[in-house]
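Exercise 7b. Backbone tokens:
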């Protein structure tokens, strides 16, 4: 009987420690042109350590899974944003992993992968500088 109670308590405690952040397991790939980068110091969605916000020109992801994200922007707005976090890996045009996101610059063509976080945020997983 003690073991059943202990297991019940353990399951209850485990359930209480779950994160409020909902992260998509699906990864999406896009290409776009950069418009700017701004340092953030952890100011992002819950439990996501956002380091930088990367602005992208002409980036317009489509599909039902992006409805909440796209709803943050007016239809005439040409610039949208993705989150660069401690998970993000950035590669230069030669394919080498780099430490600084500032190699991205403005007006640079990139290929990148993202996952959806809390429906409204796109967390960059990889960024490849194309030129």
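Sequence design result:
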């Amino acid at each position: 009987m003690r073991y059943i109670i202990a297991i019940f308590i353990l399951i209850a405690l485990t359930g209480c420690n779950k994160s409020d952040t909902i992260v998509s397991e699906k990864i999406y790939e896009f290409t776009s042109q950069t418009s700017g980068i701004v340092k953030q110091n952890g100011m992002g969605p819950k439990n996501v350590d956002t380091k930088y916000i990367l602005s992208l020109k002409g980036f317009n992801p489509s599909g039902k899974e992006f409805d909440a994200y796209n709803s943050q922007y007016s239809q005439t707005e040409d610039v949208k944003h993705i989150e660069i976090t401690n998970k993000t890996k950035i590669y230069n045009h030669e394919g080498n992993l780099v430490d600084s996101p500032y190699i991205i610059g403005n007006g640079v063509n990139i290929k990148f992968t993202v996952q959806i976080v809390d429906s409204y945020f796109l967390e960059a997983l990889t960024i490849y500088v194309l030129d």
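Instructor comment: Helices lie at 2-16, 67-70. The chain is about 15% helix and 40% strand.
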